[in-house]
Amino acid sequence: MDKFIVFATIFFQGEVKQLEYKAIDFSSKKECYEYMTKHDKHFGEVVDGIRNSIQPSGRLLVIGCSARKDVIRSDSGEWK
Predict the structure, then answer these.
(1) Backbone phi, psi, residue 30, to 5°
(2) What percent of the chain has pLDDT over 90?
(3) Whole-angstrom Cα distance, residue 50 to residue 27?
(4) For 44-77, what is each residue's pLDDT tens digit?
(5) Which one in 18, 27, 43, 52 has a CA-CA gap of 20 to 30 Å to 36?
(6) Are 7 and 72 in contact (CB under 8 A)?
(7) Which residues pair with 67 in a beta bridge?
(8) Does the CA dihedral 9-20-3-73 come out positive or negative?
(9) Is residue 19 within a helix (H) or strand (E), and if so which, with residue range?
(10) What strands lie across the sheet with 4-12, from one edge to the other?
């Protein structure tokens, strides 16, 4: 069974990066989105903090839920 994660795709210094929220695995995409919706302010603040600490001009492209296996891992990072 696939585990679902919250991820963010961010444009930093001319490159697109995938970041995975490491705190929680979800058993379904619906469960993931329900949690993300309930805690949307938290996720936004965490992503903004990372973006500001690395490159303030970086842009958040998308934040969402996906099966872990479907998130590209070759250039990924972690966020907590």
Answers:
(1) -60, -45
(2) 20
(3) 26
(4) 888 888 878 877 788 888 889 998 888 755 555 5
(5) 52
(6) no
(7) 4
(8) positive
(9) strand 15-21
(10) 59-67, 4-12, 15-21, 77-79
* Two tokens, residue 72: 């590209």
What the block records as the tokens of 46 is 């965490």
Q: 3-state SS string over 29-60?
A: HHHHHHHHHHCHHHHHHHHHHHHHHHCCCCEE
The residue ranges of every structural domain in the chain are 4-70
> Encoding tokens for residue 33?
């989105």
Q: Which amino acid, one-letter code, is at 2?
A: D
Q: Partners of 64 in the beta sheet?
A: 7
Q: What is the chain's length?
A: 80
